[in-house]
């Protein structure tokens, strides 16, 4: 009876924590559908409009590592609840915004809340499910929620904008946040601070500023180009701040990133593979969405629905991967998943104007989805297995940061390559030129995923017994 009670309480806690993760993923995409109505309603200029997305991305990507350290130091349950509450208040304020500045600031605060709650939530999952099949199943659920949220954001955003107004793409978070907080207080176990020390404020400031500058520079490449002063200034500032972070880390005893994490080759390899997956995932969603909307004329809801089969494939593959993770070495499982992603991306490189969803897109999306789902559980386990309970939050943050940076860097490079390929086409204005540019980007992403498969197979070792 006690074992069943523990399982029930663990499942309830997982549902709450996964709800927090769902908020983060959904809000990364839900506002994209509402950009037009927001522009018309609040008077955004074309230059200002992108900041609705960028403000969230900058705050989330830049503050993740300090957010993970905060969770380790002050208690993950407390920090998780605080992050969810901040996210909810920012959603309420953003939905009521009457000026562009108010909405952009609210989105940035949303990103800060997400950066705090994300590593705290995953750290709590690892506390509630410390090892074995329970942990693997929980990580499978985590992968499913992440995949579902990506597709759900576009679909839900389109429905809310058409049925109500753009404000509800933000206000929809408020009742969800209230439920997470109220239920979470009852079912999420209390967690004491597991990391001590005075804190590394200079390290937190330099890494946050450096990552924000890097993400800003990379997300602007598609619009401004690599040689624009804004891109160059962002890259120079990022390099300077991240170099300062390295110097600070060498001189302080209480480091923001514990050195033992960076010495663990399985942890580092998992983070690098996660970065490579960020390149593939962000590129896939970006270019496939463009293909469906611009070449096939699909609306926002239809685009979101097109990714539902892929989300289901990720969900099923993650559960199967979790079930067999005790029989197959983590590195091999992650490598097999990365190889499937590489094959899927290579097949997407053959897309043309005449390609159909059922004949060309759906099979490759399913293949890539199976690969992503199969790799997620062993990758996440490897990324946190060497951290120990004291550093699970910052280890989770490093893994998430790698995916965010990989996605931003990948999109910057892939969109540049795509544009160059289109310009070199005999008829740059044609649909054939456009799809040729996207096809080259998919092939490059396939090479990155293939390299990730090799890295996973050779470097992620001796982790099976830790999960």
Automatic annotation (TrEMBL):
<feature type="domain" description="Major facilitator superfamily (MFS) profile">
    <location>
        <begin position="13"/>
        <end position="464"/>
    </location>
</feature>
<feature type="transmembrane region" description="Helical">
    <location>
        <begin position="141"/>
        <end position="162"/>
    </location>
</feature>
<dbReference type="GO" id="GO:0005886">
    <property type="term" value="C:plasma membrane"/>
</dbReference>
<dbReference type="Pfam" id="PF07690">
    <property type="entry name" value="MFS_1"/>
</dbReference>
<feature type="transmembrane region" description="Helical">
    <location>
        <begin position="168"/>
        <end position="189"/>
    </location>
</feature>
<feature type="transmembrane region" description="Helical">
    <location>
        <begin position="79"/>
        <end position="97"/>
    </location>
</feature>
<feature type="transmembrane region" description="Helical">
    <location>
        <begin position="109"/>
        <end position="129"/>
    </location>
</feature>
<protein>
    <submittedName>
        <fullName>EmrB/QacA subfamily drug resistance transporter</fullName>
    </submittedName>
</protein>
<feature type="transmembrane region" description="Helical">
    <location>
        <begin position="357"/>
        <end position="384"/>
    </location>
</feature>
<feature type="transmembrane region" description="Helical">
    <location>
        <begin position="47"/>
        <end position="67"/>
    </location>
</feature>
<feature type="transmembrane region" description="Helical">
    <location>
        <begin position="405"/>
        <end position="424"/>
    </location>
</feature>
<keyword id="KW-0472">Membrane</keyword>
<dbReference type="GO" id="GO:0022857">
    <property type="term" value="F:transmembrane transporter activity"/>
</dbReference>
<keyword id="KW-0812">Transmembrane</keyword>
<dbReference type="InterPro" id="IPR036259">
    <property type="entry name" value="MFS_trans_sf"/>
</dbReference>
<feature type="transmembrane region" description="Helical">
    <location>
        <begin position="436"/>
        <end position="462"/>
    </location>
</feature>
<feature type="transmembrane region" description="Helical">
    <location>
        <begin position="12"/>
        <end position="35"/>
    </location>
</feature>
<dbReference type="InterPro" id="IPR005829">
    <property type="entry name" value="Sugar_transporter_CS"/>
</dbReference>
<feature type="transmembrane region" description="Helical">
    <location>
        <begin position="231"/>
        <end position="248"/>
    </location>
</feature>
<feature type="transmembrane region" description="Helical">
    <location>
        <begin position="298"/>
        <end position="321"/>
    </location>
</feature>
<keyword id="KW-1133">Transmembrane helix</keyword>
<dbReference type="InterPro" id="IPR011701">
    <property type="entry name" value="MFS"/>
</dbReference>
<dbReference type="InterPro" id="IPR020846">
    <property type="entry name" value="MFS_dom"/>
</dbReference>
<keyword id="KW-0813">Transport</keyword>
<keyword id="KW-1003">Cell membrane</keyword>
<feature type="transmembrane region" description="Helical">
    <location>
        <begin position="333"/>
        <end position="351"/>
    </location>
</feature>
<feature type="transmembrane region" description="Helical">
    <location>
        <begin position="201"/>
        <end position="219"/>
    </location>
</feature>
<feature type="transmembrane region" description="Helical">
    <location>
        <begin position="268"/>
        <end position="292"/>
    </location>
</feature>
């Amino acid at each position: 009876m006690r074992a069943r009670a523990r399982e029930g309480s663990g499942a309830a806690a997982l549902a709450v924590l996964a709800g927090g993760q769902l908020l983060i993923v959904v809000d990364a995409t839900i506002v994209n559908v509402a950009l037009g109505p927001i522009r018309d309603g609040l008077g955004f200029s074309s230059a200002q409009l992108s900041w609705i997305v960028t403000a969230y991305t900058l705050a989330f990507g830049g503050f993740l590592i300090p957010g993970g350290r905060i969770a380790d130091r002050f208690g993950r349950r407390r920090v998780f609840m605080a992050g969810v509450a901040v996210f909810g208040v920012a959603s309420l304020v953003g939905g009521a915004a009457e000026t562009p500045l108010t909405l952009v600031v609210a989105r940035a605060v949303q990103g800060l809340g997400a950066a705090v709650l994300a590593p705290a939530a995953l750290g709590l999952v690892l506390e509630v499910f410390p090892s074995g099949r329970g942990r693997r199943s929980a990580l499978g659920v985590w992968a499913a929620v992440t995949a579902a949220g990506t597709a759900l954001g576009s679909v839900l955003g389109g429905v809310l904008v058409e049925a109500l107004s753009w404000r509800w793409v933000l206000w929809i978070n408020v009742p969800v946040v209230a439920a997470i907080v109220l239920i979470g207080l009852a079912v999420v176990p209390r967690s004491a601070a597991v990391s001590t020390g005075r804190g590394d404020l200079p390290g937190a400031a330099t890494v946050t500023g450096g990552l924000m500058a890097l993400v800003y520079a990379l997300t602007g490449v598609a619009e401004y180009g690599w040689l624009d002063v804004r891109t160059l200034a962002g890259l120079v500032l990022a390099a300077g701040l991240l170099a300062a972070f390295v110097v600070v880390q060498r001189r302080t005893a209480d480091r923001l990133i514990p050195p033992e994490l960076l010495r663990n080759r399985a942890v580092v390899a998992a983070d690098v593979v996660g970065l490579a997956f960020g390149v593939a995932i962000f590129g896939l969603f970006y270019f496939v969405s463009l293909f469906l909307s611009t070449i096939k004329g699909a609306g926002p809801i239809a685009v979101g629905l097109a990714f539902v089969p892929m989300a289901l494939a990720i969900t099923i593959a993650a559960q199967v991967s979790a079930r067999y993770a005790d029989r197959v070495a983590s590195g091999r499982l992650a490598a097999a998943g990365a190889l499937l992603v590489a094959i899927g991306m290579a097949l997407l490189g053959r897309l043309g104007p005449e390609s159909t969803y059922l004949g060309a897109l759906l099979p490759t999306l399913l293949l890539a989805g199976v690969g992503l789902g199969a790799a997620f559980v062993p990758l996440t386990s490897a990324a946190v297995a060497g951290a120990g309970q004291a550093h699970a939050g910052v280890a989770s943050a490093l893994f998430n940061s790698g995916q965010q940076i990989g996605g931003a860097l990948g999109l910057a490079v892939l969109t540049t390559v795509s544009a160059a390929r289109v310009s070199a086409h005999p008829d740059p204005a044609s649909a054939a030129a456009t799809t040729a540019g996207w096809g080259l980007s998919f092939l490059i992403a396939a090479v990155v995923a293939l390299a990730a498969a090799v890295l996973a197979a050779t470097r992620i070792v001796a982790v099976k017994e830790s999960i």
